[in-house]
Specification:
With 226 residues, the chain is mostly helical. The chain contains nine helices and no strands.
Length: 226
């Protein structure tokens, strides 16, 4: 190549393709929140995005791959909103409380639309395959992070070392499941307060004298589905 040769400009096609795919996944995520992963179809998504079916299909290749892409995108957003912000808080109970508070905040926002982790579990609990595997892997990744936070609280001396860490993590997860049921199905207006009270009770059973006091959360009521 001569010194005066002008290098070829990089193709913008891949970048444009990724942008288009991101738009499709975003639309699919919103649609899945309303009708579930099982309700997703190439045709329905083409209608929502005003694209051709062949255009949507070209980005995924199958309905199953579309569903898996939605699960992965949901998990990425969940981590960005719930997990990573909590990492800036001190290890131990402050971090565990931050993780739960962020989880509750996201749960409150999903009362109208629904949680793909929960709706997906109902749809795919007895259906082996890649979509179920993607869902289970995502949920297990998050629950493992919660479990590690409980263990760290024990290491920091905030929770008793003889407390059952797995049981604590299990009960915290159960609170979120109960919150969705109470708020979305039973439409209980005090479900958010009860979930917060349940979390405090779980920690109080195993807290040590060295446990830092919790900051009082702002008073608010959960918006229920009508």
């Amino acid at each position: 190549m001569s010194d005066t040769a002008v290098p070829a400009k990089p193709s913008r096609a891949p970048a444009k393709g990724q942008q288009t795919k991101a738009v499709i996944i975003d639309a699919a995520l919103n649609l899945a929140a309303q009708i579930g992963l099982e309700g997703l179809s190439i045709g329905a998504l083409a209608e929502v995005t005003q694209m051709s079916k062949s255009g949507v299909f070209a980005h995924f290749g199958s309905r199953e791959e579309l569903q898996i892409s939605v699960v992965r995108e949901y998990h990425q957003r969940f981590e960005q909103e719930v997990f990573y912000p909590a990492m800036s808080t001190p290890r131990g109970l402050p971090r565990l409380r931050a993780m739960f508070a962020n989880w509750m905040k996201r749960t409150s926002a999903e009362i109208d639309s629904g949680c793909i982790y929960i709706s997906g579990a109902v749809e795919f609990d007895d259906r082996p395959g890649p979509v179920r595997d993607a869902l289970a892997d995502s949920v297990n990744t998050w629950l493992a992070a919660m479990y590690r936070a409980v263990l760290q609280a024990q290491t920091e001396g905030h929770l008793r070392s003889d407390a059952d860490a797995k049981q604590i993590a299990f009960e915290i997860h159960a609170l979120i499941l109960a919150l969705h049921y109470e708020a979305r199905f039973l439409r209980s207006p005090d479900s958010l307060a009860r979930a917060n009270a349940g979390f405090d009770n779980i920690l109080a059973r195993s807290a040590t004298d060295a446990a830092p006091a919790a900051k009082a959360p702002p008073a608010r009521r959960l918006k229920t589905v009508r």
